[in-house]
């Protein structure tokens, strides 16, 4: 079977949607030459300069141009090279795009996508390694997608482009090289708002997003050797959140480990934990545990960066702690 | 490029004009422009009163004295063109044709408000009339306007976008990025800086390193420095026609500085005590309505009696409108939980 | 006794610290003329133009100038008029100020304060009413303060100015008019990182911040009439978070209602709930309930805005639900 | 204002010079400037090799070919002056005197790295030498630089801040806000735009609406358009001296565009295939080191043999340094949980 990398899946989704719908247009820094991560390679050649636009380094203008074009009826897909740079256009995203439909009583529509590379693990340092889907989750009015597999990268990005709302798609940069079987057929779509149960087991629920899903799966394999069977849930989207799948699993297993790259101080894991503490309280048999990114800016040196990132080992340890009825010691800081 | 001396509220300014007046340009119907300005003036004067009576929820920023810009530019746009403005946006919505009733309902928090009660004064929008919204974050809408023009450019549909903002707004990063991108991509957009000489309570001269907030920045984007007397509705219309024409022809953006004065405070809550009374008094003599009425009286186009009667009629209409809207019901709480998504729903999770 | 408004408390703190330490300098839009909320009234007159600087509308330059001045050894206090506008300088706050000390191995120091008005309830609409302390809490490296009383407004702001770290102070705009007894003496300081137990009761813990503290107190009064005794905790700071006080109260009462203006989707309440679900699980007798801001942009019309805001009634209802062992229905959206 | 014709990599440019060279200005010690550039060149050449060997964690952006700017400006600063740069900042740190060893330790992830292993290549900082950091977000540091200059202005301590950034950076909002504020407040800061003709993979001409990214924007801030040949270290130093002098005198900021070329890729991971080989070959002939060596050989100031020997010696020193540092231990994980706060701690809660 043909293989597809996570990186190629981005281009595949864009290619699929641009071919299908001529209102889909791309913009961003260096997107014409394929982009720094080569995720838009070949698109300008195929679709021409009226569909793929190289911008100056002007994130506010990029996000704002996407907003305006969407308002005017196109379906723009903007690229913010590193998701850390959302900070340079946060006003456009959080104050304009997220609110325009609501605050105009539904007069403005925002069918747009902004893609950005997210996450750490490559030694890119504090300003190029953050996972900032938590920033977006603080703001009602935007959908949030973060795929964990090449298949989902393709299907969810395609669905995001077809979605009538503004969607931020977080592409984990440590996943770009991962490979999987290429989905069959030419058209591929994965609906937004449906979590995937990647693995089934009744002792504990492991919940991940993007790169932490793989950690959950690895941890589940390790736990299986100890006779502990784990559900692994890939959230895929934070908004819309498939809380039903999370709650159903938690009610069945009674034990939950949430694994996020966001800093634990306030990450999406806290939102999930809070929902569980409120709505599944009576079914929980153990504390809701989070394995989160460290509450520090991200360091570069190998051992230090590893220390502040979640890992399969940390997940397995947390799950073992729960199943033995022990509460693991709080993470430092 | 031809240059023209235009008389602004500062005195004479020697300013280049982007394009010569178009051959097919028709003479403006001054009576019509006057009436449009008058309706806006009376509408906002009524809002001022209503605010003081505690009837308006939230802040309101009036454009009293700046009506010639909204009206003059709107007169240069076609239906189907886009425009966007700021929290000081009543005039811009109304000038494009937005319903006075629906706007007032929004301000007074009644059912049928133009934004369904969700926007308030700072977010008046009337997509039906091509007015794509009022935005309350300084400069935040300029990139959006550029995006709308970009869509027109991609579709090659001949559409033009007009974007209004204040003098103080030229200091914010979004202004720079947006005007720059529009210039790089040669987009059909007309940026209109309403230079009312103040950024809230601070004279604009205290916070810019150049003399003219917009015109002195134009060359940074390869654009011509255009200045127009923003209290002269015919001049604004003429400048706007030239800029719109240039945009429609595919020759790219223009940045127009329209010099004016805000007769009231920054918002209805501001008494404007930081301005010398003489300055305000002098500005009143250059009120765009007074000025046009005087001109028309002199030319015989509209006599003083007639314009007085018009004022009385329009004022009466606004009083009646307000009285009627105040009797109307207020929106339900339930509406808050709708309309975050375009299908009318608002749930973020299942 | 002399009275002091919350608004006057801001100026009192600034005045106190500027008089004490000549490296304290102010900057912001219209701060020289007292500011839109009149919180800096009189300071330029007293301290002169070398201490109080009016800026252009350039939030990035304002926050960045504060960072640079702090780096160079001053103690700047910047004003961001409405906290919603943090979005226009989020890069400076989240990516530069918060990270500079850590990522330079401690070479750069950031003794600065940024003040911004926060919160809804006045019909200012979606772009001028947000509570965005959750944005800041997503980012390790900044301290977060949000006082609920005039006394704390004074003391905490003064402490923030003396603090060696970057501190964001959120001033709830609906509190400016509130009054209390003027603290005795000329110098007033309230240490950062200590929650205040505003009221003591063993049946339920109500946790608030800024304006929601008053709602908790009102709710506690109403609950007392029903024979339900409530702890009311005023967090005062989110970073440093006084988790110990929260945990101690929760362990004693076993029931917690968290009351935040942040949208429930991801607000500080989720962080507190997650801590409780992990660290106080075995002592909890009921689900951890949150009364949060609605998960929508903020509407203007009176009834709609009230619907999406927390209130004393909602708090009391949630607490009653817990004490009767019932789980209240989930808030819409 | 006097004008000077300066030869840039583009050919001749007629550019105004902000101030005449100061009377007391001393002739530069060209040998010294050469050696400083050479050390940086050889340091970075070694980093390039180490990266290709997989020894450098994270990205690294080299300034090969741009050394004359870092060195020329540093030569115009006093100890106690501040400077700030970007992710392409090795040269800027070293030019102020930062320890080669400590920088290399940072890049190779060894104990004793200049940022303690927490910064990496993009955040090299040496406060001890007045270099207040490298910042990886385009434009994000320009407001900070302005703040440092503001502190000098408030203290009236005569300090000057130099801030480096690229041509592509002139399109971002932070640039506009920061340069503008510096001009409004007349702050002692020298903005140095290193125009290396590319914004990553995109030629700068494709993304600006003017010819010169910095000089053509200067008038928007009431500043003179200053251009210097960024491959001529003496010219850079002279221009910088004039700008620093102006700043120190209290006459406000300058915006200098130093035209240069980056000989390598945007980062060590980039082959630079988007550039025509002829373009790169032509640029190599204008290499600031080659050029100064040739000049000195011609003037007899330093013979070819001597400069060859110098290259061999410095290269040997860099090889030896790298070999030694590679033997050193790597930092512990525990360090990650320290230093978020200035007292060395990192807890956010009790
Ligand atoms: C980013 C941002 N900063 C500050 C404000 C507060 N504010 C609202 S209007 C205004 C002054 C704007 O001045 P100008 O651009 O001249 O427009 P005018 O109000 O005079 O029409 C300010 C500072 C804001 N809304 N947004
Ligand atoms: C806000 C932001 N946008 C995008 C980037 C990615 N990026 C890093 S360097 C660069 C090009 C910068 O070009 P220029 O200013 O000319 O500097 P040079 O790299 O040529 O020295 C870009 C786009 C970034 N770091 N920050
Ligand atoms: Mg103004
Ligand atoms: Mg460059």
Automatic annotation (TrEMBL), chains A, C:
Endpoints of the signal sequence: none
Annotated NCBIfam families: PRK09212.1
InterPro entries tied to this protein: THDP-binding (IPR029061), Transketo_C/PFOR_II (IPR009014), Transketolase-like_Pyr-bd (IPR005475), Transketolase_C (IPR033248)
Keyword annotations from UniProtKB, A to Z: Oxidoreductase, Thiamine pyrophosphate
Keyword Secreted part of the UniProt annotation: no
Ranges where the Transketolase-like pyrimidine-binding domain occurs: 4-178
Species name: Actinomycetospora endophytica
Name of the protein described by the UniProt record: Alpha-ketoacid dehydrogenase subunit beta
Cofactor(s) required for function per UniProt: thiamine diphosphate
Domain of life of the organism encoding this protein: Bacteria
Pfam families the record matches: Transket_pyr (PF02779), Transketolase_C (PF02780)
């Amino acid at each position: 079977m043909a293989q597809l990398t996570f990186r190629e899946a981005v281009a595949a989704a864009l290619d699929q949607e641009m071919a299908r719908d001529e209102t889909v247009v791309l913009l961003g820094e260096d997107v014409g030459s394929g982009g720094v991560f080569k995720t838009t390679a070949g698109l300008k050649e195929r679709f021409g300069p009226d569909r793929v636009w190289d911008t100056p380094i002007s994130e506010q203008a990029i996000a704002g141009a996407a907003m305006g074009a969407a308002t005017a009826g196109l379906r723009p897909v903007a690229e913010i090279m590193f998701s850390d740079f959302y900070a340079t256009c946060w006003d456009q995203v959080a104050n304009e795009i997220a609110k325009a439909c609501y605050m105009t009583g539904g007069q403005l529509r925002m069918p747009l996508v902004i893609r950005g590379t997210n996450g750490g693990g490559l030694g890119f340092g504090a300003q190029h390694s953050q996972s900032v889907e938590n920033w977006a989750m603080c703001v009602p009015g935007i959908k949030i997608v973060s795929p964990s597999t090449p298949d989902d990268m393709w299907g969810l990005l395609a669905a995001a482009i077809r979605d009538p709302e503004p969607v931020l798609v977080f592409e984990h940069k440590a996943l770009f090289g991962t490979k999987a079987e290429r989905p069959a057929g030419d058209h591929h779509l994965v609906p937004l708002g449906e979590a995937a149960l990647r693995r089934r087991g009744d002792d504990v629920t492991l919940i991940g997003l993007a790169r932490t899903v793989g950690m959950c799966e690895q941890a589940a394999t390790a736990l299986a050797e100890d006779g502990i069977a784990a559900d692994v849930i890939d959230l895929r989207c934070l908004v819309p959140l498939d809380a039903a799948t999370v709650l159903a699993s938690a009610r069945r297993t009674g034990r939950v480990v949430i694994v996020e790259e966001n800093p634990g101080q306030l990450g999406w894991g806290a939102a999930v934990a809070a929902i569980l503490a409120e709505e599944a309280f009576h079914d929980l048999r153990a504390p809701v545990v989070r394995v989160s990114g460290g509450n520090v800016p991200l360091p570069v040196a190998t051992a230090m960066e590893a220390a502040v990132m979640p890992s399969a080992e940390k997940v397995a340890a947390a799950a073992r702690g729960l199943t033995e009825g022990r509460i693991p010691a709080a993470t430092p800081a | 490029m031809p240059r023209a001396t235009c008389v602004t509220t500062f005195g004479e300014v020697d300013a280049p004009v982007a394009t010569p007046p178009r051959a097919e340009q028709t003479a403006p119907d001054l009576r019509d422009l006057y009436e449009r300005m008058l309706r806006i003036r009376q509408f906002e004067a009524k809002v001022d009163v209503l605010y003081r009576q505690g009837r308006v929820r939230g802040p309101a920023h009036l454009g009293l004295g700046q009506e010639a810009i909204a009206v003059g530019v709107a007169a240069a746009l076609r239906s189907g063109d886009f425009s966007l403005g700021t929290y000081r946006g009543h005039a811009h919505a109304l000038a494009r044709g937005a319903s006075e009733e629906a706007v007032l309902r929004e301000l007074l928090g009644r059912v049928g408000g133009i934004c369904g009660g969700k926007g308030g004064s700072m977010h008046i929008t009337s997509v039906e009339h091509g007015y794509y919204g009022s935005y309350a974050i300084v400069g935040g809408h300029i990139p959006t306007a550029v995006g709308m023009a970009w869509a027109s450019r991609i579709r090659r549909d001949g559409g033009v976008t007009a974007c209004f903002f204040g003098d103080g707004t030229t200091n914010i990063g979004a202004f720079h990025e947006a005007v720059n991108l529009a210039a790089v991509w040669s987009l059909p957009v007309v940026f209109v800086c309403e230079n009312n000489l103040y950024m809230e309570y601070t004279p604009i001269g205290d916070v810019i390193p150049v003399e003219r907030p917009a015109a002195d920045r134009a060359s940074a984007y390869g654009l011509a420095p255009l200045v127009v007397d923003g209290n002269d509705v015919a001049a604004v219309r003429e400048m706007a026609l030239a800029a719109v024409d240039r945009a429609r022809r595919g020759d790219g953006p223009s940045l127009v500085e329209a010099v004016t004065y805000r007769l009231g405070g920054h918002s209805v809550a501001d008494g404007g005590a930081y301005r010398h009374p003489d300055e305000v008094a002098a500005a009143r003599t250059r009120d765009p309505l007074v000025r046009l009425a005087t001109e028309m009286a002199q030319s015989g186009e509209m006599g003083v009696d007639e314009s007085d009667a018009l004022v009385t009629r329009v004022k009466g209409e606004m009083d009646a409108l307000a009285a009627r809207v105040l009797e109307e019901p207020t929106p339900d709480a339930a509406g808050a939980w709708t309309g975050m998504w375009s299908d009318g729903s608002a749930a973020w999770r299942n």
